Amino acid sequence: MKITLIDEKGKSKTYKKADANMADAMAVMKFQLNQKALYTTDEKIEGMSSEDLQAYYIQRNYDSFDAGIKLIVNVFDNKFEAEDILRSVKRKDFPDLLNSIIIDVMDGESDEKKDDK
Fold this sequence. Notes:
single chain, 117 residues, mainly alpha, flat
């Protein structure tokens, strides 16, 4: 797997990792469990004002993105920093990047690869 990021000097650099290990797989599983818990509706949102609910959703999304960025940095053995991802990846591209890394780590196949078979 690989990721291309822009460093603090504005130069593009590609980071590669040949194989994911069990630590990476377990980090992905923990991330997925935490995301499920984060996005499970719970009783604490019942009765919230619309302003409080909006702040809750913003914080939840922030926490989700932050955890995803930390996961990517961890999978690539801290060869770059979270700021490099923030600087390099567009918001709209982040979910696809994260999903592709999760699939690579778990040695799965994307839907596109399955369709080609």
